[in-house]
Amino acid sequence: MSTLSEVAARAGVTSATVSNVLRNRGRVGEQTRQRVLEAVAALAYRPHLAARALAEGRAPTIALMVSSIANPFYPEFALAVERAARTSGHFVIVCNTNQDPLAGRAYLEQIAGTLSEGVLVMNANLDFADLHQTEARGTPVVLCMWERPNDPPGLPCVAVDFRRAGELAAQHLLERGHRRIGAIVGSKRSGIHAARYEGFVDALRAAGVKLPRTCVRYAPDTIEGGYAAARELLDLHRDTTAIFATNDLPALGSIHAAFDLGRNVPDDLSVIGITDIQLARQSRPPLTTVAVPTVEAAEMAVSLLRELIERPPDTRHTARHTAREQPRVCVASEPRLIVRGSTGTPRRKRG
Amino acid sequence: MSTLSEVAARAGVTSATVSNVLRNRGRVGEQTRQRVLEAVAALAYRPHLAARALAEGRAPTIALMVSSIANPFYPEFALAVERAARTSGHFVIVCNTNQDPLAGRAYLEQIAGTLSEGVLVMNANLDFADLHQTEARGTPVVLCMWERPNDPPGLPCVAVDFRRAGELAAQHLLERGHRRIGAIVGSKRSGIHAARYEGFVDALRAAGVKLPRTCVRYAPDTIEGGYAAARELLDLHRDTTAIFATNDLPALGSIHAAFDLGRNVPDDLSVIGITDIQLARQSRPPLTTVAVPTVEAAEMAVSLLRELIERPPDTRHTARHTAREQPRVCVASEPRLIVRGSTGTPRRKRG
DNA sequence: ATGAAAGCGCTAACAT
DNA sequence: ATGTTAGCGCTTTCAT
């Protein structure tokens, strides 16, 4: 790996000049520019990113904190993040917290501000105190999928109206004529799916449809979790005609459960999820779901993060302290109902 | 972000001493050590990774080149890579080449040796010349999933015997009594699935079973690709009793195709894939497949890469040039047949 | 046991 | 238009 000054020597100039031609800064004579370019080519020179980072006081990477790379929602999102980051000149360091706040903290402490100049947080189950601290130390943080646009988290974020997603799911089921409905809610503990569930329940209530306690199950956010929950639900309430799950994976699991119980989807049972992961359109039957703007959210998040990075640090702070101005929240476009093959009209009761 | 010398000032020592304390180098008096540690804590000091990298002449990151983050095989692999890298003190920069060798080259040129001290290549459809060049420039490269252990690629790699995987698939189908078999091979062009296919065909041949040309379809490595290919296959050869796909996704697609054609799996058609992705056990019916040691391969790859990084550069080179010693290839353990619900015995011909 | 000093490869004033 | 000069924050000889 050749260095700037090697290039400079070969071109008979000083490294400052080489730096200038490489970044189109300062005025450089046309012929020296040529000589420099030749030398760069001859030596196959590539700038040393770590050195540049040090000199510039910034870093060419951002950190993407995720709780689990295995979530099927992750790939599309991460892909969009990577693309967007690339156009803003950043590389992406993937930080898997594995649901463990301590792992998350360890990552933050190590790379925030020293290797990455910004942090994207995607459902990573992190300690907010840790995030505030890294912010306070000067490294911008953006939450990627805040679920309640009207209830800002106190950190910059891009928000998606998941409450609305729940509503849309309920309305669809209601329109199809369903009245005896079950709900499967992503793990209670984190409460991260609360908004989805609220939207769903409220829409039901507005239509005068009740959702008894016993028709609600909390389950891990997986196919297996949905499977188990749906079986319980369907065992307990054999007359259930539709199941709503706060995420696609459990919805898919519900479909499996229905089939194992000898019930056909959508004829004997309708199932609807939220998110619209790739798998939703590839399963049998294809899953009706409420699509969430994944790619858009990713792009907004990167864009917001870059904005924060660019903004001089004092502005970042004052904006928060002096004015009672809250951290920015960018609201992504609304969820959209995608009707596929897993929902239909309830069968008439057998004579 | 406080710096080393700020810590030093507060502790009344010089930055060299702080450095020594922090990395347990050199002899430091017990009381100064204490004072230093206090100062570190008080100032919440964190080493600046970019600065350290520059001073040490090494980098704390490795690059993971992948062709598509969206491949469902990716998450498990990437997760394992991340874990392993972390234990060796490295962060992972995910580089999505999106199947484009030029994108791959751009990544390599930018970060290899300047931000990352090693490169992991996972089915990234990269130009081998580019890889050799980054190697020549002093940045170790490891191929993560070489498919033919006996036909080394000329680069360090971890190899998995995919030929054997194909054999195992064939043997299973044969044992179950299948004779009229169709094959779906991942995109012909790249030829990356050639070994799997060869193993399969050879095992068939050894058993005296022919696989006519028209029973082989080349298809994109997706559910949809497998679906289309399977429909063609089953339309053309209505008496086919089993389908082998060189990957799980197309195998899953084949199952869908069968159902749409009114054929039950496994009763009317058996389907087998290769890899054992998560989805394989979550689909209906669960997919019989030949499992490949994903996690093990990831760990071996990181381990090999680290070894290469640690080894002094001259050794890296001479080993190749003087001795006719080939770059190392680590062979991961053998693929294993996982029998699930998508394969059975062929139905007796209807009277 | 600790300090002084040079340097990693680059950028960014400021001179000339 | 180009060169000089400091650093960026850290590690690492080599002195003391």
From TrEMBL, chains A, B:
Domain HTH lacI-type, residue spans: 2-56
PANTHER family linked: LACI-RELATED TRANSCRIPTIONAL REPRESSOR, LACTOSE OPERON REPRESSOR
InterPro entries reported for this sequence: HTH_LacI, LacI/GalR-like_sensor, Lambda_DNA-bd_dom_sf, Peripla_BP_I
Organism: Paraburkholderia humisilvae
Gene3D superfamilies, sorted: 3.40.50.2300, lambda repressor-like DNA-binding domains
Any one Pfam family match given in the protein's UniProt record, by short name: LacI
Protein name: HTH-type transcriptional regulator DegA
Keywords annotated in UniProt: DNA-binding, Transcription, Transcription regulation
Molecular functions per Gene Ontology: DNA-binding transcription factor activity; transcription cis-regulatory region binding
The keyword Transcription regulation appears for this protein: yes
